[in-house]
Design a protein that fits this description.
It comes from Bowmanella yangjiangensis. Pfam families: CBS, cNMP_binding, DUF294, DUF294_C. This protein has 607 residues and is an alpha+beta fold. The chain contains 24 helices and 18 strands. Strands 1, 2, 3, 4 and 5 form a 5-stranded antiparallel β-sheet that branches. Strands 14-13-12-15 form a 4-stranded mixed β-sheet, sandwiched between helices. Strands 6-7-8 form a 3-stranded mixed β-sheet. α14 packs across α16. About 1% of the residues have low confidence.
Amino acid sequence: MNESTLAFLHRCAPFDRLPDVLLQYCQRHLTLHYLCQDNVLEVVPRDKPQLYLIKQGTFDLIGSNRQLIERLEPGDLFGYPSLMTKRAITNTVKVLEEGFLFALGQAHFDYLCQHNKEFADYFARALGDRLLTETRRDISTDWTQLPIADIIERPVIRLDGHQSMAEAAALMTEQKVSCLLICEQEELVGIVTDRDIRSRVVAARQSFDLPVRQFMTSPVISIESEAPLFDAMQLMTSHNVHHVAVVNDNQPVGVITATDLMRQQRSEPLFLINRIRKAENVDQLEAIAEQVPEHLNQFANRVVDVRLVGDMLATFTDAFNVQLIRLYLREHGPAPCAFVWLTFGSQARRDQSMSSDQDNGLLLDDAADEQARAWFAELAEFVCQGLARCGLTLCKGNIMASNPDLRQPLAAWLEKFRGWTQEPDQKALLHSNIFFDRRMLYGDKWLFEQFDKQIAGFAQNQIFLANLAANAADLAVPIGLFNRFRTRQIGKHREVLDIKKSAIAIINDIVRIHALNAGIRQCSTPERLLVLGENKSMNRKDCQDLLAAWRFLVQLRLQHQLGQAEPDNFIAPDGLDSLARRQLKSAFRLIKDAQEGLALKYSRGAF
């Protein structure tokens, strides 16, 4: 082993913790390999567990479900889970940039673990963190995670925007398709469906000789070909469309339709959401809502990632909410001025649980007079009471549009947020954890953009952020000395911990603070972590670790709640299997580490 290799090992954990005598042992037993895509199976064989240390190059570690586990760069390690658990190797390596890696065999790895406790502890902890990202069922049973590319059966069928509607109809008939993508100079500019021909040409008595671009829908709702089917279903339901363009590096490669999803024989949520949108009154909505728990249970039994149930629940809630607004508008006519129905908290983040309540508000145009405000007061009462009938309970803290304080013109809302950020007392900090997770559900996009943009600016006040950070860093995580859970009695529940208050909410708080500081306007925790890692506002590995912990905790809570008549957040660690207990401890340790990092970064300026 030459001096440069020795210096490299001294910079890489946990080799930097080894005494010289064990480094000399490494010198004799580490082997250096060149890795390219052509020799992956030779250098990283599936039948020979080894510890690998990246010296040069960039590689992706891909799980058996074809999802990215980790991007590997110089100094990163992989291979240790199979060494420690003796389980079969299921992951593969994809070469992004050819390079070199060191390999260490099972016997030599075991020797180092036996002779150096710090080295062994490092990998024990790393294994616990890795377990957070593992699934415990066969991904092949989860239709929602299939890549869209896997079910596209025919190449993209396109038409130039200057061609006529007659040519479009003829091509659709010839190809037996229900839509065409419209492209000009290789750029996707629109989509035309059979519904467009019926409603925009035939029903409107327009000439079939007119150009397609006059009737197409633009811009086009699109999705990447490697995205999972679940994302396509979410796009269709949230935008109320039946066709989504599929792209690869912004180039159209096909179309996925609602019929394609239905062929998977797993798309009951689409039917239920369509029924919500067709409901004629609150009684019908209430009857549909009674079926939601059963649909969610069936959905959970079919998917590997139970966390998707929370996303699906938010989709149902959005659909009920929007339909209630539409029913009111149908009965009482157009709104007297521009408005936005706002949703806050878990519905805004799309991580609702079975026990979530309402958090919403109304943003009004500054021109709203007393008569207009009275109209919106009736709208708010109708929608909030309707949501309660549909199973989304009234908020005990009165965070609802039916509260006049949360039904305000733009100027009043901005003044409210400005006060919270410039004079951050405890009440303001509490409000910030709710209202800074906000999403427009229905209404005027321009009005929401003015609101959202200015709030993002207010939130970058460093004194405000420092106080938010101090609060989040002080929240107790229920794990104590010797890595033991700190359970307690909560009501009638003995030896439990509150998975929402003591874990999930803390991660949401930590990620929100980093996102506000970076000016990120997305409000879901996964989206925020993705952007924070991409723009280097946070260490990419820290983002991945927090996301893995968040996903595990959300999935654990939903699994717990799906079996309950009255869902709660109280987890009894003794009732979990050994794997889940290890994962839970790993998640708690990651949260405590994130709290320490948060306190350090924002330590100046708190009151």
